[in-house]
Amino acid sequence: GHSDTVSSCHFCFEDTKILSCSYDRTVKLWDVEKGFPIEVFEEHTAPISECNLTPDDRRVVTSSYDNTVKAWDMETGKMLWTVEHEGIVTSCNISCDGRYVVSGSDKENTICVFDAVSATVVAHIQGHHKSTITRCCFDPDNQRVTSVSYDKTVKLWDLLTRSTSITINEGHSNAISDCCFTSDGHYLCTASWDRSLKIWDIKTGEFQCHEPVSLNQGHEGSVSSCCFSQDASLVVSGGYDKTIAIWD
């Protein structure tokens, strides 16, 4: 499929297509049945760290080690805009309403929120973490941006108040590699190099007085990714031990 590491992939167009991006500097749109790419996007000059789709499947946003975030029109394959960053961009995400894009950069460990159509910057938060941001994403209500980092912390930044509403410092004993929300935004899952995953009750703030649900013994190595099922009854995780774990 790609000539180098595949960094991100998603089903789209009602599961008939797959979008993938790679360290080979390309983004590809695949036909699931036929198994070959219908569209190839080739404007990045360095590895692509993540790709994301708007909910209507009309636009793709990509982040790259070439210090840029780019948006593409899925129908025409044309690039719509480029936002330059001062450092490599490790993650990007589109809000569920398609209005905003968030990116994480390793220059001063910054998160940047900008308008998905005009690419104008809405917020630029420098020093948000003490080390490289590994993943950033919007909650399903489009009100908060969650980010996780090598600094072992989880942060939720509020779009309305323009401030950090939640910081979790004691959750993991090693770098946090990934995070994801349940579809209702009630729970947040974090995956870490400490070989565990944690489930946080974000909606009611239960985690502040009770320990989060801890998922252990599933991996023999660092956990690299996590994802909730649509009904939030399962979590699937992938690890550096080359295994996938499914949790109840």
TrEMBL record:
Keywords attached to this entry: Repeat, WD repeat
Keyword Repeat set for record: yes
Domain NWD2 C-terminal beta-propeller, residue spans: 42-217
Pfam families reported for this sequence: Beta-prop_NWD2_C (PF23586), WD40 (PF00400)
Per-repeat ranges for WD: 1-40, 41-82, 126-167, 169-206, 216-248
InterPro entries associated with the record: Beta-prop_NWD2_C, WD40/YVTN_repeat-like_dom_sf, WD40_PAC1, WD40_repeat_CS, WD40_repeat_dom_sf, WD40_rpt
SMART domains recorded: WD40
Protein name: WD repeat-containing protein 88
Source organism (scientific name): Phalacrocorax carbo (Great cormorant)
